[in-house]
Every structure is written in structure tokens, then in C-alpha cells.
Amino acid sequence: MPEWTTAETQLLTVPCYATGAIIYMIAAQLSDRTSKRALFTLIGGVSSIIGYGILLSKAPSGVHYFGCFMVAGGLYVVVGLPLAWLPNNSPRYGKRTAATGMQLTIGNCAGILSSFIYPAADKPRYVMGHAVTLSMVGFACTVYAIVVCGLAFQG
Fold first, then answer.
1. What's the pTM value of the predicted model, to 2 decimals?
2. What gap in Å lies between CA 8 and CA 10, rounded to an integer?
3. Does 155 score more than 80 pLDDT?
């Protein structure tokens, strides 16, 4: 596995983040046009799960780099679309504000957990961190699917 400098590593993240941002903008446009946020959120979740699976494999570094694109493209959508989905489905200003505040607070708690599941001792593969994150994205997709099915059968 090649050794990269800190600057090179940072520069290699730019295309991943740019891809994630572009995919997110496309998914946001399409989900607004079709009013189907859950569909795009689930597609993004599956993309991230596949990407984390690639990162967990013992593949060459180029394949792992491709996995980073899959993760970024999916996670931008999985995180971003629900930030619009919840407020759009919350009645009245006060409930919408409280729900959005709770959503952001709970979501930002992941930053606390990340320092424990991605310890420096696990580098460069971070198997535990990727496995935990994969399972959390899988759990989120399951919850989204249950919500969609519940809403479909309700009305």
C-alpha cells in the first residue's frame, strides 16, 4: 500500500466530495420534482452500503478509492434529503422547529461516536469504523423502508 503525504491525502478527497455534492444536487432536484424523497434516500443508502463493503474488502487501493466515491455519493443523499423530508412533513412552525432541532442534534452526535469507532490504531483500513458505519446506514435504510411501507398502507 503506497504511503501518501497529508497534502496528497487531502487532495485525493476533493474528487470524492465533489462527486457527492453533484450526486446530492441531482438527487435533490429529482426528489423535489417527483416528491419521492424516500426512494432517493434508499438508493443513496444502498450506494453507501456497497461502498463500505468495498472498503471492508481486501481489494487494492484503487478499488478502495472507488468505494470512497460510492460512500460519498450515497451518504450526501442519505444525510441531506431527510433534512428536507422531515420539515416538509411536520405541521405548524413550532413542531417543525422542534423536529428539525432534534434531527440535527441526534445526527451530530455521530461526531462523538466517530472518535471511538475510528481510532488511529486501526489505520489505514479502519475495519471497525467502516463496519459500524455500514451497519448504521443499513439500519437507517431499514427505518426509511419501514416508514415508507407504513405510510403506503396507511393512506
1. 0.89
2. 5
3. no
